[in-house]
Amino acid sequence: MPDGADERVxxxxxxxxxxxxxxxxxxxxxxxxWVRAGLRGAVPTRRGTATTERTTVRTTLIYGAGDVHVEExxxxxLREPTDAVVRVLRACICGSDLWPYGLLPSSDVGQPIGHExxxxxxxxxxxxxxxxxxxxxxxxxxWSDNTCDFCREGLQNCCRHxxxxxxxxxxxxxxxxxRVPYAQGxxxxxxxxxxxxxxxxxxxxxxxFPTGHYCALRGGAGPRTTVTVIGDGAVGLCAxxxxxxxxxxxxxxMGRHADRTDLGRxxxxxxxxxxxxxxxxxxxxxxxxxDGPHTVLDCVGxxxxxxxxxxxxxxxxxxxxVGVPQYTEGPVGYGGxxxxxxxxxxxxxxxxxxxxxxxxxxLDGRVxxxxxxxxxxxxxxxxxxxxxxADREALKVMIQP
Length: 401
Ligand SMILES: [Zn+2]
What we know:
Strand content: 15-25%
CATH topology of the largest domain: Quinone Oxidoreductase, Chain A, domain 1
Distance between the termini: 21 Å
Strand order of the largest sheet: 1-14-13-12-15-16-17
Structural class: alpha/beta
Bound molecules: zinc ion
Number of helices: 13
């Protein structure tokens, strides 16, 4: 889901696209362990001998604001012939998980949480074709049949049989294993052996990279466009990467955290503006010849971010927003945007529609969206991972069960 990182806006230093030499290697890229080979002997144990069979798995439940627990739950099993059971190799905490983490009313009943994961298929229903046990698969942040009219239009988030992890009895993704409905339509296989160092970037295909891509695509980012990205959370940074990949000429990133905006420059931002509000708007205007950018990508979701987007966009331009809106009213009426023929687009990204397109460049290392992960925890470290993200000590936390 869209980011929800707090708003960070502009401030200016010039910059140009960086090469991979400009950022320190984060350690994992030198590893040459091959995931499938490494797991071959360890995976399908659930149907194995009694000594290796699992009866419970650990999963993450939220009971209210700031109240996240990792608990044992029954081992997921197939319920429908279209299901799969996936053992999770990597999951992560989303910026949008921070909204319930900050606001959810307290309850005696834990709500499963987490919607980004990749893993290995352990078990398959009889009606699933095109997937095999042992396959490494990416799960988009919503499941879908990939066959209904909405899915065929590339709007898998509106699937007539779709749903979201953690709701209506489905497991959350921050788990050791997950039952996946409509596995054939939902899961995307990664063919061949996979370098373990690629797992973080592959994991971003679950949500933040396709979400940033969708935001940029809907915003019309491309050659001869100038783009402003609001927000330096994982989605904002992936939106920079996506805009660059789509050919945007100039990309102004509005964000205030130097370590994040440095990554934004690595991903393709040409300018960084840390100022917020009117000051930030003025700075972006100054950088874009006085008129503002053709495309503004709101990757935050607060009213302040939308106000900044609408104030800064060039007349006739496009505001694309993927940050989950945290407001019910605002300057979206006549005077704010209608009068100036500004198109507001974006929405829930159909991540499933983009994984096959984005996957090859992740696999061959042309893009490294996995650099958004700056901390890894095990299952017992998940509550601390939430605290670190809520306190902005971590950009995005990966979970290695
Ligand atoms: Zn569908």
